[in-house]
Specification:
Number of domains of chain A: 1
Radius of gyration of chain A: 24 Å
Strand content of chain A: under 5%
Number of strands of chain A: 2
Helix content of chain A: over 70%
Strand order of the largest sheet of chain A: 1-2
Radius of gyration of chain B: 26 Å
Oligomer: heterodimer
CATH class of chain B: Mainly Alpha
Largest interface: A-B, 106 and 111 residues
CATH superfamily of chain B: MetI-like
Number of domains of chain B: 1
Shape of chain B: globular
Order of helices and strands of chain A: HEEHHHHHHHHHHHH
Strand content of chain B: under 5%
CATH topology of chain B: MetI-like fold
Number of helices of chain B: 17
Distance between the termini of chain B: 30 Å
Chain lengths: ~300, ~300
């Protein structure tokens, strides 16, 4: 290819990329940089705004509210995410095996909660959890059991995990199911000639084949878990003592910025949060790739 | 576990000439146990929505006194819908239109930007392409909500807060959309086709708009659908950016309405009005998803398989 044509093609390619990057720079890079800048300053009662270096970050790591928020996120990552992805994988495999009746309808119905806005989902579950009038209360009374208070201080975290699971199992299932559908059928035939049963087939052929899709769902779940905001923001009115200001890091950043008016510290928390997410996602990616090499 | 049980139900045949055919038929065999487990699980996903529908047919009194998964004493659906659309001079309709406006403009804009960029990354080699793409991949990891607070501060100094732009502009950036379109375009647009068009004398712009764009359709629908849902469902961004009631989208409006009715102020909305409003708000997206399922399922497959 001669140089003039190459240069022309480069220009065209930059032309295609430019509009995205222009918006990306103003709506993504600039706020990020600004957030980083703000995080190095603090607003003092005496003397106004002053440079504090890493002061806000040091403060964050000594701030029990922030650390407890991170702790709750860790619990969600360790308990809720495996349950959610486990169910998603089970349903995807079950649908793919074609052995359940009405698979197509079941697939759509399991996916349906994803189309429900998070706000509506939380609002709805808030009513369902009601100890006296909610559906869970009605059902446990009908069964002669004492109704559990899902909005109490000790249960609220698990109630929130349930809402997230309800909303996102279907989404993750669809990603895995789509990946399963693209496995070449010859692979199954080879396994079946070897006499592998369905369970063995799923474990030794299907799951390894869709590892990239599973990795994608894990990464998205990690990112999503660190960003939890709607649930605490909307449930705090009916569970005021169960949901402190720092319930999740994101909810904490919001409260710091808009309730406490401590913008610099809020920026540091937001920045730190992005950093933690990158590290955790990277570790997840690395550990899953390592497994791939081993197997 | 269920797979093992179905295996017991269909013992392996002795090797024979018909073996392969029998195994092939075997794959389609139904399992009663799996069917029961599957549909029991479907109940978990669907019962809350049935509750939402049933509740939207009830009067405020029946809401708390009758069984949640069946109709109440009165069928109040139409009265409730009437209440939803007349509450505060029909603010609900305004919220709906705002949501439609914000999400369609954002989705169309984000899709156009992501398609052009993803196509360039897939089909052209140019200086800096690897670095740029790496930056975009890194951006997928950054939580959008972590950006929202500094974005609010920047917008506020530019006097853009409390305008529709405050919600639309940040939603135009979809790093994942670029990623998905790059993966999709790599396969969907054959290099040979582009070469043939070049030989015919078509310029690069013309090739994109006349040839490639048509082949990118399913990928674009996926990106559009997912940015549409993301903006439609967004709560954090409009919550901090907007404060005049007339500009709110449905999510923030409904949450506020719920808060006022829970607080039980003077002329508050009834719980039944809030619940009916919530029920109505999920219908458009459900319809869109059902109608376009062929597209988003293939599009997602692309991201999941190659990702």
């Amino acid at each position: 290819m001669n140089n003039a044509i190459k240069r022309k093609q480069n220009l065209v390619a930059y032309g295609f990329v430019l509009p995205f990057f222009a918006v990306f720079a103003t709506m993504f890079i600039a706020p990020l940089a600004y957030s980083g800048y703000l995080s190095f300053y603090a607003h003092k009662l005496v003397g106004g705004v002053s440079f504090v270096g890493l002061g806000n970050y040091v403060r964050a790591f000594q701030d029990p509210a922030f650390l407890f928020g991170l702790g709750r996120t860790a619990l969600i990552l360790l308990i809720q995410v495996p349950i959610m992805l486990g169910f998603a994988l089970f349903f995807a495999l079950a649908l793919d095996s074609g052995r359940a009746r009405g698979s197509k309808a079941a697939r759509l119905l399991i996916f349906l909660p994803f189309a429900v806005p998070g706000v509506v989902a939380v609002l709805m579950w808030g009513y369902l959890y009601g100890q006296n009038f909610g559906l869970t209360g009605q059902i446990s009374r009908a069964l002669g059991l004492p109704p559990a208070n899902f909005l109490s201080d000790s249960l609220i975290l698990f109630s929130i995990m349930n809402i997230i699971t309800w909303a996102f199992v279907g989404y993750n299932m669809i990603i895995m199911y789509a990946a399963l559908k693209s496995i070449p059928p010859e692979l199954y035939e080879a396994a079946e000639i070897d006499g592998a049963g369905q369970f063995r087939l799923a474990w030794s052929v299907k799951i390894p084949m869709i590892r990239p899709a599973i990795l994608l769902t894990v990464i998205f779940s990690v990112i999503g878990s660190f960003q939890i905001f709607n649930e605490p923001k909307l449930l705090v009115e009916i569970s005021p003592t169960g949901i402190p200001q720092g319930f999740t890091p994101n909810f904490y950043a919001f409260n710091l910025a808009f309730v406490n008016q401590d913008l610099n510290y809020a920026a540091a928390i937001a920045f730190l949060l992005g950093f933690v997410i990158m590290i955790v996602s990277y570790v997840v990616q690395l550990s899953m790739q390592k497994k791939e090499v081993q197997s | 576990m269920t797979a093992q049980l179905t295996h017991v139900a269909a013992p392996p045949d002795k090797p024979s000439n018909t073996d392969k055919r029998r195994k092939g038929a075997n794959r389609g065999r139904r399992s009663n146990l799996l069917t029961v487990v599957m549909w029991m699980s479907v109940l978990y996903f669907i019962l809350p929505l049935i509750w939402l529908f049933m509740s939207s047919t009830k009067s405020n009194g029946d809401l708390f006194t009758t069984f949640g998964l069946w109709f109440g004493n009165d069928f109040n659906l139409f009265a409730n819908i009437h209440d939803v659309f007349t509450y505060q001079d029909g603010i609900y309709l305004r919220w709906t239109l705002n949501t439609v406006l914000y999400s369609t403009v954002s989705a169309v804009g984000a899709t156009v930007l992501a398609t052009m960029a993803g196509y360039a990354f897939a089909k052209y080699k140019f200086p800096g392409d690897k670095l740029m793409f790496a930056i975009i991949l890194g951006a997928i990891m950054i939580p959008l909500t972590a950006l929202a607070i500094p974005t609010y501060l920047l917008f506020s100094s530019a006097h853009l807060t409390n305008t529709p732009w405050a919600v639309i502009l940040p939603s135009l950036v979809s790093p994942f959309g670029v990623f998905l379109m790059r993966v999709y375009a790599a396969d969907a647009v054959p290099d040979s086709l582009m070469e043939a068009a070049r030989v015919d004398g078509a310029g690069e712009q013309r090739i994109f708009w006349r040839v490639s764009l048509r082949l990118l359709g399913p990928g674009m629908v996926t990106v559009m659908l997912f940015t549409l849902v993301a903006t439609w469902n967004n709560y954090f961004l409009p919550l901090i950016m907007l404060n005049s009631g007339k500009l709110l989208p449905l999510t923030v409006g409904l949450a506020q309405q719920q808060a006022t009715s829970a607080a039980g102020g003077g002329a508050q909305a009834l719980f039944s009005t809030v619940i009916t409003g919530a029920f109505l708000s999920i219908l458009p997206l459900v319809v869109v998803f059902l109608y376009l399922q062929r597209f988003w399922q293939t599009g997602l497959a692309t991201g999941g398989v190659k990702g």
